[in-house]
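Technical annex, item 7. During the second reporting period the consortium partners agreed on a shared format for inverse folding records so that results from different sites could be compared directly. Each record opens with the tokenized structure and is followed by the designed sequence. A conforming record, contributed by the partner at site C, is shown below for reference.
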């Protein structure tokens, strides 16, 4: 029986999960419309290419004609005028993960990628490998993959690969999104404290992960990073994994894991090369990954373990990995002008900052790395990250901090003192300072843009288009301008 086609209205349609879900629903034959604030790429581009044209702003009149269903993103507050109107009208309402589960996951074996770091890249890598090996998976990725046609696909195969976010689902659905995703296979990349606005203590976040692990069936599979230095809490992932009732494969860079590189990783500017012992055949296999950074080697190991367990041939998986080029806004090189390269990255947690800077050293050996950092999330600007950030930014040659984006939402005692952090970094040999605003930040960055420099922007938000504006300004800079 063909499912009924619905008129579906999405509030906060431009979110990194909502936009691809809207496109998936339209691909399924539903009429999809919705609204958001001003949007920016890549999600604005994604919707435009799908022929979905969101309204801007929130007004109950947008709900005319009356839709069959409203899907409400987690950026929407309870008192949003359209949310209030939707409830008053008695519309059926779902959160984004509830809608994904209802329309797409019920008929698939769900492979969920979760963890503090690496979710988007690992999800895209898995979707690419299954697709390149001819398995036609469904997938939903919270970013724009470089190798796939889009960040979403309904798929004709039995797998649906989804990024499992620990953030809350909606104002009426306060649990983590991933609790709706019915995992048959779970890739768990890391477990560090984050999202302090939702999880008051690290223990409350660990409890959410424990609930996710409890969803795995006995015949399922857990693929978890077993490295001692990745979780931030020694042995935390191994401790959490002990609660799973299914088979567990530990992967990582350390030799104590079930799956780890054999010998040294060959770190080249064009990527990483290493060997593994295939757990299914016992044979040694060489893997070439065109991505820099040890963290991406670890991501690759997780995908390898799940792909081989699913029966994808080793040679085909290795060939697919050799053609994977990552995700936009993850170490994305935007271009080079006047000998200065601009790279855009999503890093905002100290561990991600440190891993990104390490990957940049591999990719651009011997070059001067100038880091522009925007403390964008509600956690990035909190004081408990002072020491971890001091360690993370030690890998840069120059650091420019933007103001804390949510400064007004943090109590003075909660805020990280970035001026003090800049002083400590400068005293340790990494010149750093805090800009008054993004205009000043850009001006200072252009002053630092000497030939051979790499300017890397780090933000979990739009950063007011900073990386693209930097590149445009470099291209316009007169030949005798500052170098």
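Designed sequence (site C submission):
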């Amino acid at each position: 029986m063909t499912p009924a086609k619905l008129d579906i209205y999405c509030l906060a349609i431009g979110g990194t999960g909502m936009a691809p879900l809207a496109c998936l629903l339209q691909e399924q034959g539903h009429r999809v419309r919705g609204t958001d604030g001003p949007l920016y790429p890549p999600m604005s581009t994604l919707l435009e290419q799908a022929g979905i044209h969101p309204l801007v702003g929130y007004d109950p009149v947008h709900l005319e004609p009356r839709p069959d269903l409203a899907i409400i993103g987690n950026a929407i507050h309870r008192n949003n005028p359209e949310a209030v109107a939707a409830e008053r009208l008695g519309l059926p309402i779902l959160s984004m993960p509830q809608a994904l589960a209802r329309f797409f996951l019920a008929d698939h074996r769900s492979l969920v990628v979760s963890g503090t770091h690496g979710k988007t890249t690992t999800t895209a890598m898995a979707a690419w490998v299954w697709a390149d090996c001819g398995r036609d998976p469904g997938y939903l990725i919270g970013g724009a993959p470089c190798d796939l046609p889009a960040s979403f696909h309904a798929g004709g195969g039995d797998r649906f690969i989804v990024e499992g976010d620990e953030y809350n689902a909606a104002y009426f659905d306060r649990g983590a999104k991933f609790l709706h995703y019915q995992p048959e296979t779970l890739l768990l990349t890391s477990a560090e404290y984050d999202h302090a606005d939702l999880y008051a203590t690290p223990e409350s976040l660990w409890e959410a992960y424990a609930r996710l692990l409890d969803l795995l069936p006995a015949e399922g599979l857990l693929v978890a990073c077993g490295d001692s230095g990745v979780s931030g809490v020694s042995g935390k992932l191994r401790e959490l994994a002990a609660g799973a009732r299914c088979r567990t494969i530990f992967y990582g860079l350390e030799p104590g894991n079930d799956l780890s590189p054999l010998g040294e990783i060959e770190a080249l500017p064009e990527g990483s090369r290493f060997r593994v012992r295939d757990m299914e055949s016992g044979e040694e296999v060489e893997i070439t990954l065109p991505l820099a950074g040890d963290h991406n080697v670890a991501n690759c190991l997780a995908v390898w373990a799940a792909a081989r367990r699913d029966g994808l041939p080793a040679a085909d998986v290795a060939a697919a990995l050799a053609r994977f080029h990552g995700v936009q806004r993850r170490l994305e090189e935007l271009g080079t002008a006047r000998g200065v390269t601009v790279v855009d990255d999503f890093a905002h947690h100290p561990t991600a900052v440190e891993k990104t800077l390490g990957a940049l050293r591999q990719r651009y050996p011997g070059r001067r790395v100038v880091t522009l950092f925007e403390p964008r999330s509600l956690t990035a600007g909190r004081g408990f990250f002072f020491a971890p950030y001091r360690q993370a930014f030690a890998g840069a040659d120059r650091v420019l901090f933007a103001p804390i984006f949510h400064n007004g939402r943090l109590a003075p005692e909660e805020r990280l003192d970035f001026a003090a952090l800049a002083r400590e970094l400068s005293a340790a040999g990494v010149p750093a300072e805090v800009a008054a605003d993004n205009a000043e930040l850009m001006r200072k960055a252009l002053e630092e843009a000497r030939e051979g420099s790499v300017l890397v922007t780090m933000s979990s938000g739009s950063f007011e288009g900073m990386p693209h504006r930097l590149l445009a300004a470099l291209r316009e800079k007169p030949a005798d301008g500052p170098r």
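The chain has three domains: 7-97, 107-321, 332-476. The domain at 107-321 is CATH 3.40.1190.10 (UDP-N-acetylmuramoyl-L-alanine:D-glutamate ligase). All partners now use this format for quarterly exchanges.
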